[in-house]
From TrEMBL:
It is a multi-pass membrane protein. It comes from Streptomyces tateyamensis. The keyword Cell membrane applies. It is found in: Cell membrane; Membrane. The chain crosses the membrane at residues 65-83, 95-118, 139-161, 214-237, 249-270, 282-305. NDH-1 is composed of 14 different subunits. Subunits NuoA, H, J, K, L, M, N constitute the membrane sector of the complex. The keyword Transmembrane applies. GO terms for molecular function: NADH dehydrogenase activity; oxidoreductase activity, acting on NAD(P)H, quinone or similar compound as acceptor; quinone binding. GO terms for cellular component: plasma membrane. This is NADH-quinone oxidoreductase subunit H. NDH-1 shuttles electrons from NADH, via FMN and iron-sulfur (Fe-S) centers, to quinones in the respiratory chain. The immediate electron acceptor for the enzyme in this species is believed to be ubiquinone. Couples the redox reaction to proton translocation (for every two electrons transferred, four hydrogen ions are translocated across the cytoplasmic membrane), and thus conserves the redox energy in a proton gradient. This subunit may bind ubiquinone. It is an enzyme of class 7 (translocase).
């Protein structure tokens, strides 16, 4: 619980600073004095002070429940992510890959509920875009994860790390790209943020949210970044494998996850937002063929190794 409430906020603070440096943003560098250390505190106070408004025509229960549905699944996923060797995992599951992917898919339902319940056409459009994006990018993400499971011969996340070898890095590089990119799209992070296009449909499914409820959606986004980066490091980068892994394995997992989180932020400030048709085309004509290619390559290499 402490990790889930602290590390996503650290990622949020890092995003403020990285974007400030890369794009020359002055505001986030001044709050609190040295290097804008109090920017995150200022944001928290701002959200806490804002009035909690529910639109008159909204489905109140669904509207109020949506932020929790968006946030809690990422906390549940963290239970199954192995942080270090020797059983350093909340709950080791035999079908860990399918569990984490299924629960991450539930998190996206929060945006669908928010868009449907808001009684706002812009929010509904954002929710429908979220649904289309979820269906398109869930498939390549699952195929890329299946490639690693095939290579390791197990669906257990600790089992995959036990079977990991350094030469998997170039072998599974295509799958790593597909998995990480599809994960960004499922989190609706730039450049895959068409469902929350602020210049086109206001803010998509979150247009009617204010105060703490809106802050929960932001926390869910940063929690999703933490989960995606941790899973990518476990599946494709060796997780806790590294020098002195028996005593410092947890540190290697965190370092790899935060390095990937930096890449997520870097992508936000680098690439322009895709159009909706470009976003769908990228999933079906680029990521899915690459994922199938990775599966075929993994099958061929596994057969060659077994003989």
């Amino acid at each position: 619980m402490v990790v889930f409430l602290v590390l996503p906020l650290v990622i949020g603070q890092t995003e403020h600073k990285v974007m400030a440096h890369m794009q020359g943003r002055l505001g986030p560098m001044y709050a609190g004095g040295f290097h804008g250390w109090a920017q995150l505190v200022a944001d928290g106070v701002k959200f806490a002070q804002k009035e909690d408004v529910v639109p008159a025509g909204a489905d109140r229960r669904v509207f109020q429940l949506a932020p929790a549905v968006a946030l809690l699944p990422y906390l549940v996923v963290l239970l199954a992510v192995p942080v270090g060797p020797n059983g350093f995992v909340g709950q080791a599951l035999d079908a860990g890959i399918f569990f984490v992917l299924a629960v991450m898919g539930i998190g996206v339902l929060g945006a669908l509920m928010a868009g449907w319940a808001s009684a706002n056409k812009f929010s509904l459009l954002g929710g429908l875009r979220t649904a289309a994006q979820l269906m398109s990018y869930e498939l390549p993400m699952l195929l890329a994860a299946a490639s690693v499971a095939m290579a390791a011969g197990t669906l257990s996340l600790p089992g995959i790390l036990d079977a990991f070898h350094w030469w998997w890095l170039p072998w599974q590089a295509i799958g790593a790209f597909v998995f990480f990119t599809a994960g960004l799209a499922e989190l609706q992070r730039p450049p895959f943020d068409m469902p929350v296009a602020d210049s086109e449909i206001i803010f998509g499914a979150y247009t009617e949210y204010t105060g703490i409820r809106f802050a929960f959606f932001l926390l869910a986004e940063y929690g999703g970044i933490l989960v995606l980066c941790a899973l990518t490091s476990v599946l494709f980068l060796g997780g806790w494998h590294g020098p002195l892994s028996d005593s410092l394995g947890w540190l290697w997992t965190l370092l790899k996850a935060f390095a990937l989180a930096f890449v997520v932020i870097w992508a936000r400030v680098t690439f322009p937002r895709l159009r909706e048709d470009q976003l769908m085309r990228f999933a079906w004509t680029v990521l899915i063929p690459l994922a199938l290619l990775q599966l075929a390559l993994t099958g061929i290499i596994k057969v060659a190794i077994s003989q």
